[in-house]
């Protein structure tokens, strides 16, 4: 299960980076695009934000599974014979991560910044490509 969660988390991060790039590229250089740039921008923000939340979910699931491995009787509480240094460290990783708690806010800020940079980059790229004179013999 640990390997599957790692793979899903990596796939989420990969999709969070690559999917918006493909989306903005196709919009910028496609003649058939029916969406305005602001619509692509808003859709991209929502997609990136959702993918950040999916990555946080996979991380939470992984850390919870790691912590649950120390609960030998499965009652949700840690008795004195279940407590150890490894259990304490797993508990600290699960409970002391402010980044996961603030992921909805930081994910929105990241999504806005990331999409802004992508749109700007591809708009500038489109301008520079159109300005180049064509060389025909």
Q: Quick one: biggest sheet?
A: none
Number of domain modules? 1
Q: Helix-strand pattern, N to C?
A: HHHHH
The number of distinct helices, counting runs of at least 4 residues, comes to: 5
User: Which class best fits the helix and strand makeup?
Assistant: mainly alpha
Radius of gyration: 22 Å
User: What is the first-to-last residue Cα distance?
Assistant: 61 Å
Beta-strand percentage range: under 5%
Mean pLDDT: 81
Shape: elongated
Helix content: over 70%
Low-confidence stretches: none
Number of strands: 0
Give a short summary of the structure.
The longest helix is centred in the middle third of the chain and has 32 residues, at 37-68. The chain is mainly α and 137 residues long.
How would you portray this structure in words?
- The structure is a single chain.
- The chain is mostly helical and 137 residues long.
- The protein has one domain (2-131).
- It is built from five helices and no strands.
- The chain has helices spanning 2-29, 37-68, 85-95, 98-101, 103-131.
- It is elongated, with a radius of gyration of 22 Å.
- The protein starts with a helix and ends in a 6-residue tail after the last helix.
Any chance you could write out the topology, listing elements then pairs?
Layout: H1 2-29, H2 37-68, H3 85-95, H4 98-101, H5 103-131
Helix pairs in contact: 1-2, 1-5, 2-3, 2-5
């Amino acid at each position: 299960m640990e390997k599957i969660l790692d793979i899903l988390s990596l796939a989420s991060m990969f999709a969070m980076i690559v999917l918006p790039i493909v989306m903005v590229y196709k919009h910028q250089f496609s003649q058939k695009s029916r969406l305005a740039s602001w619509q692509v921008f808003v859709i991209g923000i929502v997609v990136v934000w959702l993918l950040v939340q999916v990555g946080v979910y996979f991380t939470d699931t992984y850390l919870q599974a790691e912590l649950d491995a120390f609960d030998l009787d499965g009652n949700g509480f840690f008795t004195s014979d279940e407590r150890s240094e490894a259990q304490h460290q797993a508990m600290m990783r699960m409970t002391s991560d402010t980044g996961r708690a603030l992921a909805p806010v930081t994910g929105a800020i990241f999504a806005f910044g990331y999409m802004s940079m992508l749109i700007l980059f591809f708009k500038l790229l489109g301008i520079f490509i159109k300005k180049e004179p064509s060389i025909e013999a």
